[in-house]
Amino acid sequence: MHESDKTFREELLGQEQWDAGLREKYDREVQAMIEKKIVGWTRFGHIVGLGMSLGFLALFGTAAVLVPREFPLWGRAMFATGAAFGFAFAVFEVCLLRRGTVNLKNDDVAMAGMGWGCVVIGTTLVLVFSGKMPDQIVAVKMLVSMIVFEVAAGFMLAKAYMQRSELNLREKLLEIEMRLEELTQRK
Fold first, then answer.
1. Secondary structure of residue 134 in the 3-state scheme
2. pTM for the full model?
3. Could you give the CA distance from residue 65 to residue 80 in angstroms, rounded to a whole number?
4. Residue 150 pLDDT
5. How far is it, in rounded angstroms, from Cα 63 to Cα 48?
6. Which residues pair with 35 in a beta bridge?
7. 27-to-12, 23, 110, 169, 172 alpha-carbon distances in Å
8. C-alpha to C-alpha distance for 32 and 62, rounded to whole angstroms
């Protein structure tokens, strides 16, 4: 389908007016499907995630600053990257806890994407600088370890995108259901 055809189709669909009651019902059901309140064990999990994020920030930030002067610069960069992502995760968790809800379409993908990005940056640093390590066996062990983490983070990112796709599908099916209900009420 050409872009102009798609735009024309969307314009035509935009001209169609929904019944106000059905539109309100549709919006409520979509909101209930996508937004989940953070209560109980979920809240506890996000509080633990916040604590871990702050712990990573403190641990890696301290390590980046306090390692001996002869410690390689790329090692400090890895510690600084860990601290930066610890900070980013902490800010994200605070925002979720303050909001009190999780948007299942966007928040899960953002969290998994940040985790994957952190691992990719770390793996890249190890890959680029592993040739400068005096003990090549240690360098290979580091690379293998990072690849294991990268695969795990990639699976989590893929899972988050699959959940988003499922929610998009459920939302579209709900829209079709509402339109069919509206058509049957008109008869």
1. coil
2. 0.74
3. 9
4. 92
5. 22
6. 103
7. 21, 6, 23, 15, 12
8. 42
Amino acid in the structure at residue 82: G
Are 52 and 92 a contacting pair, CB within 8 Å?
Answer: no
Structure confidence by residue, pLDDT tens digits, 30-62: 888 889 999 999 999 999 999 999 999 999 999
Beta bridge partners of 143: none
State both tokens at 78.
């890895």
185, 25 in Cβ contact below 8 A? no
Residue 136 confidence class, pLDDT cut points 50, 70, 90: confident
Distance, in Å, from the CA atom of 113 to the CA atom of 63, rounded to the nearest integer, reads 25
pLDDT tens, residue by residue, 84-116? 999 999 999 999 999 999 998 899 999 999 999
Domain boundaries, the chain: 32-182
Residue 102: which of 45, 173, 22, 172 has the closest Cα? 45
